[in-house]
């Protein structure tokens, strides 16, 4: 879990405190090179996998993700290793290939039963934060975007079976998204679709709010840390890149989409029908290259997991996201360092900013090295 956490820190900020970060005697830790940290994380992950003894004692039920089963954690670790290998495929293809092939040989997720789920409960303060943000807060101003809902439903004949699980119909009983960043313009939120399905239960529309704000069934809706769908997308990408992981691009692509649909509540029959649609079937899917086809469907499957969707989109530059009107910058490819670091850890902050090419949202990180596919 430490490797998992650092993976997101490094892919969000770039150079970060690492070697001195948890040293109580280093209140102003230095920043280490992001690529160097990443390599060390992979080394640590291998050591962690080797140390997991299926016959040893465990935390038992105190382990709220896998119930204290070391073999499940080993599979989780190898699946994370696969993901980390794919992330650096454009930066270091040789290393990525070795990492990915080793992970797959050792055993990665093979079904939704393997998904790493963080269990929330029905009573505050340990409820799902989505429920807190959208329901407990009584806010009605988070709606789907026109681009995302448009990708789900390019026309009425190709409705994605996940749509009713992702969103509620608006007050006019249709799925409709608002343009990116248009909320500050005084839009009428009841005209658009709010999150629904397992996150919110559709309720009756009123003059002031759409159908999705109603009774809440899942304040304990689990958080996904790592899942089978993204694993299959990573395997599809690995095949396209020439890695020896078995299967075909299309077989992994189909398995990934099916896993996403069935996880959200759809059926295998719905997944099969969806995969026959011209804009989804791999041979004719939207996108001009295999990696674009994979990237688009993975982007949809990572609904409610925006951080991972952001990483994939930065790597593969697809789908092309529509900037909001009057955007403050070009598309952000990293987060700037926290203000607290800028004010307190000044010397190390300045060195890190210079090393990465400037503490700006437009400074590309080490793994994001290739242009559009």
Keywords:
two-stranded antiparallel ribbon; mainly alpha; 4 strands; 373 residues; 14 helices; single chain
Q: How are the SSEs ordered, and which strands pair?
A:
Elements: H1 2-13, E1 16-17, E2 31-32, H2 34-51, H3 70-87, H4 93-106, E3 116-118, H5 129-136, H6 146-152, H7 163-166, E4 223-226, H8 228-240, H9 249-264, H10 268-275, H11 290-301, H12 306-316, H13 339-344, H14 346-356
Antiparallel strand pairs: 1-2, 3-4
Structure explained in plain terms:
The protein has 373 residues and is mainly α. It has 14 helices and four strands. It has a two-stranded antiparallel sheet. The chain has a two-stranded antiparallel ribbon with strand order 3-4. Helix 2 packs antiparallel against helix 3 (70-87) and helix 9 (249-264) packs across helix 10. The longest helix has 18 residues, at 34-51. Mean pLDDT is 90; it is low at 201-217.
Strand count: 4
Content-based structural category:
mainly alpha
Main sheet characteristics: 2 strands, antiparallel
Query: Could you say which overall geometry the principal axes of the C-alpha atoms support?
Result: globular
Q: Calculate the mean pLDDT score and round it.
A: 90
Protein name: Susd and RagB outer membrane lipoprotein
Keywords: Lipoprotein
Pfam families: SusD-like_2
């Amino acid at each position: 879990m430490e490797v998992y956490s650092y993976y997101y820190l490094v892919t969000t900020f770039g150079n970060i405190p690492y070697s001195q970060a948890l040293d109580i005697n280093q209140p102003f830790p230095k920043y280490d090179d992001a690529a160097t940290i990443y390599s060390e994380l992979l080394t640590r992950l291998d050591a962690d996998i080797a140390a997991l003894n299926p016959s040893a004692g465990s935390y038992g039920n105190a382990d709220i993700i896998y119930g204290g089963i070391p073999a499940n954690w080993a599979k989780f670790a190898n699946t994370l290793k696969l993901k980390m290998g794919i992330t650096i495929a454009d930066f270091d293809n040789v290393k990525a290939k070795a990492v990915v092939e080793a992970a797959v040989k050792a055993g990665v997720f093979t079904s939704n039963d393997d998904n790493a789920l963080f269990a929330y409960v029905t009573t505050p303060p340990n409820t799902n934060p989505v429920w807190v943000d959208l329901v407990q807060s009584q806010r009605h101003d988070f709606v789907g975007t026109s681009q995302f809902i448009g990708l789900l439903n390019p026309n009425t004949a190709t409705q994605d079976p996940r749509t009713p699980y992702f969103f509620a119909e608006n007050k006019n009983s249709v799925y409709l998204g608002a343009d990116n960043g248009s909320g500050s313009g005084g839009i009428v939120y009841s005209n658009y679709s709010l999150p629904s399905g397992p996150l919110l239960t559709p309720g009756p529309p009123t003059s002031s709010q759409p159908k999705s704000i109603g009774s809440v069934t899942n304040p304990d809706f689990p958080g996904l840390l790592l899942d089978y769908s993204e694993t299959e997308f990573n395997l599809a990408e690995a095949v396209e890149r020439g890695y020896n992981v078995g299967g075909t691009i299309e077989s992994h692509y189909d398995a990934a989409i099916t896993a996403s649909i069935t996880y959200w509540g759809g059926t295998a029959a719905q997944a099969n029908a969806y995969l026959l649609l011209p804009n989804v079937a791999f041979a004719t899917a939207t996108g001009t290259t295999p990696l674009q086809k994979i990237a688009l469907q993975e982007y949809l499957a990572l609904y409610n997991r925006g951080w991972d969707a952001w990483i994939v989109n930065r790597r593969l530059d697809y789908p092309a996201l529509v900037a909001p009107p009057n955007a403050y910058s070009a598309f952000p490819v990293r987060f700037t360092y926290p203000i607290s670091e800028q004010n307190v850890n000044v010397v190390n902050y300045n060195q890190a900013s210079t090393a990465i090419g400037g503490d700006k949202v437009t400074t590309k990180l080490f793994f994001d090295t290739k242009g559009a596919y």
